[in-house]
Design brief:
Elements: H1 2-22, H2 24-78, H3 81-84, H4 87-110, H5 115-139, H6 147-178, H7 181-198, H8 218-231, H9 233-263, H10 267-289, H11 298-318, H12 322-350, H13 356-385, H14 387-394, H15 397-427, H16 430-433, H17 437-446, E1 448-452, E2 457-459, E3 467-473, E4 476-480, E5 483-488, E6 493-494, H18 496-500, E7 508-511, E8 515-521, H19 522-531, H20 533-549
Antiparallel strand pairs: 1-8, 2-7, 3-6, 3-8, 4-5, 4-7
Helix pairs in contact: 1-6, 2-5, 2-6, 2-7, 2-9, 2-13, 4-5, 4-7, 5-13, 6-7, 6-10, 6-12, 8-9, 8-13, 9-10, 9-11, 9-12, 9-13, 9-14, 9-15, 10-12, 11-12, 11-14, 11-15, 13-14, 15-17, 17-19
GO molecular function: transmembrane transporter activity
Subcellular location: Cell inner membrane
Keywords: Cell membrane, Membrane, Transmembrane, Transmembrane helix, Transport
Length: about 575
């Protein structure tokens, strides 16, 4: 039994990677993320070296805060742009801006220009970088059809994030040793431009969203994202835990520099080596996280990831040796991988699609603010109490927050499991099976159960139609003008003709056994089905076929098992 379970997990992991490889648009989006985040990590190492040369640990912390505060303010204000149109266009724009700003940084460093100019360019690059992830996170569900495929996409993206966390600092370390600091920024600029080019040819049908207002009110639209988080305690919990984790991440931007240069005495290349250890652990963690793609416990693993991101930092203060530091930072990388697959999947499945980029914008804003705050606090503790005290204290926030949130995250896991069953039920209906994940998840959230006893009537011929029905259990008989025309069972739907054609019910539907239905009101059903081109086309075909074949007065006897209004 255990061996079969292990094979099943390995099969799920292999299928996760295969689904991303087969889907052309998903593949290009994932490779773009790899380029963007390799650029980010290489840039962060290079910027840390510039700041440390300029003013030591305090400068590293202040620069970390300086580059994050504008991002914290601007990201939620700009993220509504990704909810107004095609999200990949926002990604192309911000990647291009990052590439130009980073290339300019390379020029300034190359001519030994003032570090203040480098810091200003870092702010521009970081604002663009923090806008990239919410737009990319909001794009991924539109390229997926099921919760499994979205979890797979987040596993793969987590692996690529881990590879970038390894490759960016390692590349920076090699360039610092053999070429110089200018080359670090030049390579980072090239990676950002590559990320933009990959997204120029995405071809997919965006899921239906409400029409954006003609006038642009970015502040009001950004506030919608904030309200969505504040009003949903699950969203608020996920975002809060992410802020706790990134506080530690901000502290690490200072601590890796100080530990390498002052504590371990490995010099400037050692900064890249320590950061690469995080990436190496993240790669291994992402491969392990791929085994979780089919699990119903993403919330629990998310909590484990948050705890792992902090506890090893504390332990470095206890074991201040290079081998121990590399191993413990690798554990931080494992935690990062678990956060990617758990946190981003849960957030994407909890927030409504029409404000999804704005919710991710709120996340990135808090992440930027907490990262900058973590960097400054770590620098102050290092200056006042020493690097070992900073290590001992800065890593405790994540484990404490994870322990406090454990019960609520397990409840969230259970609710997602129930919704997955509802989505499976909807997928059994041909026209609904065509919907992308955000759209069908929207329907699943709004389904209302109805029970009908054997012999009971669901609706009569001639009634006004206001709902669509999907059979969860039991069976019904469809009767037109007193003549039975079909029998329907679990996984089949009915009631669409009256909704799609704005007409009265064309038949009577009666329960032939105890019946459990899931129902969708017309104002929930129609915008989703008609707002997405493939499902609208399929719905039209189904209705035309039904009207032609099952008109109550003159149609021949149809086979059982068809969808009937």
């Amino acid at each position: 039994m255990g061996q079969r379970g292990g094979r099943s997990r390995l099969g799920d992991a292999a299928a996760a990677f295969a689904s991303n490889t087969r889907n052309r648009d998903l593949r290009r989006a994932q490779l773009s993320f790899l380029g963007a985040w390799t650029a980010e990590w290489a840039f962060t190492v290079g910027l840390g070296i510039v700041a440390y040369r300029d003013g030591g640990a305090t400068a590293v912390g202040l620069v970390g805060l300086l580059r994050m505060v504008p991002s914290a303010v601007l990201t939620p204000l700009l993220s509504p742009l990704a909810d107004r149109g095609r999200r990949e266009r926002v990604l192309v724009l911000v990647s291009t801006v990052r590439g130009v700003a980073t290339a300019a940084t390379a020029v300034v460093v190359g001519v030994a220009g003032p570090p203040q100019v480098v810091y200003a360019l870092a702010v521009v690059s970081t604002v663009a970088a923090t806008l990239y992830r919410p737009a990319h996170s909001a794009l991924l569900p539109s390229l997926c059809r099921t919760g499994y495929e979205l979890a797979s996409a987040n596993v793969v993206r987590g692996l690529l994030d881990s590879v970038a966390t390894l490759a960016g600092p390692l590349l920076a370390a090699v360039l610092l040793r053999f070429v110089g600091l200018t080359a670090v920024f030049a390579v980072s600029a090239g990676a950002s431009c590559w990320a933009a080019v990959l997204l120029l040819r995405l071809r997919y049908d965006a899921p239906p969203r409400p029409s954006a207002p003609v006038e642009v009110h970015l502040v009001g639209e950004a506030a919608d994202g904030v309200r969505a988080v504040v009003r949903n305690r699950d969203l608020a919990l996920i975002v809060g835990l992410a802020a706790a984790q990134t506080f530690t991440r901000g502290a690490l931007t200072v601590l890796t520099v100080v530990v390498a240069i002052d504590l371990l005495r490995t010099g400037e290349p050692g900064v890249g080596t320590l950061s690469a250890a995080i990436g190496a652990g993240a790669v291994l963690g992402s491969l392990a996280a791929s085994l979780l793609v089919g699990t119903r416990r993403l919330g629990a693993w998310f909590a484990v990831g948050v705890a792992l991101f902090g506890l090893p930092v504390t332990l470095i203060g206890v074991l201040p040796y290079q081998a121990a530091a590399l191993a413990l930072l690798a554990c931080v990388g494992v935690g990062n991988a678990l956060i990617d697959v758990g946190g981003f999947t849960l957030l994407a499945r909890t927030a409504p699609d029409d404000v999804l980029a704005r919710v991710f914008g709120v996340l990135e804003s808090l992440v930027a603010l907490s990262t900058g705050t973590g960097a400054v606090v770590a620098a102050l503790v290092v200056e006042q109490a020493g690097v070992r005290t900073a290590l001992l204290t800065m890593g405790l926030l994540g484990p404490v927050a994870a322990a406090a949130s454990w019960h609520r995250l397990r409840q969230l896991d259970r609710s997602i499991g129930v919704r997955d069953r509802d989505i499976d039920l909807l997928r059994a209906v041909a026209m609904l099976d065509l919907l992308p994940l955000p759209a069908i998840e929207q329907l699943a959230r709004r389904m209302e159960p109805v029970a009908v006893p054997a012999g009971g009537v669901v609706f009569e011929q001639g009634d006004v139609g206001d709902r669509y029905y999907v059979i969860e259990s039991g069976s019904v008989e469809v009767v037109g003008d007193g003549r039975a025309v079909a029998t329907l069972g679990p996984g089949e739907g009915f009631g669409e003709i009256a909704l799609l054609r704005s007409t009265r019910r064309t038949a009577t539907v009666r329960a032939t056994s105890a019946l459990r239905l899931q129902t969708l009101r017309s104002d929930h059903f129609l915008p989703v089905v008609l707002g997405y081109t493939p499902s609208a086309r399929e719905a039209g075909t189904v209705v035309d076929t039904m009207l032609h074949r099952y008109a109550p007065r003159d149609a021949p006897e149809p086979p059982a098992g068809r969808q009937i209004p």
